[in-house]
Amino acid sequence: MSSAFGTRRFDRSSTTAGLVIGDVMVLVVLLGIGSMNHNENIIGNPGYFAGTVAPFLIGWIIASLVVGLYSSRARRSVRSSVLLADGTWVIAALIGAGLRATSFFHGESPLTFVLVMLGFGLLFMTVWRLVASVASNAL
């Protein structure tokens, strides 16, 4: 099982590590901007902000493993990198919004919130993955 996981679903390379770090940073920045737009003090109340990030990070981890976002297949082309990251975000955002709707996390998940998260997340992730792909091809 671990060899199938290692070779099919998660490429253990420095490039993949950079993508994981970059993807998580994009999610944190996206959620930080959204939180600040709602007058939340993400620096003064980091625990609250962590509670904002957690459901989407959980969703991201689950979705990335299901989609195979960090497999070598996902980096075969710029197109596959962007499309798989965007697909992962759609699944992760829906999982995150679903988790936010429970009593385990703060916040709510009205349809407008879900649509805004989907839209801005797709924008942020697409731009990041395009930049990452161009940068890795330039090296």
TrEMBL record:
It comes from the Archaea. Pfam families: DUF3054 (PF11255). Keywords: Membrane, Transmembrane, Transmembrane helix. The chain crosses the membrane at residues 16-36, 48-70, 82-99, 111-131. This is DUF3054 domain-containing protein. It comes from Haladaptatus paucihalophilus DX253. The lineage of its organism: Archaea, Methanobacteriati, Methanobacteriota, Stenosarchaea group, Halobacteria.
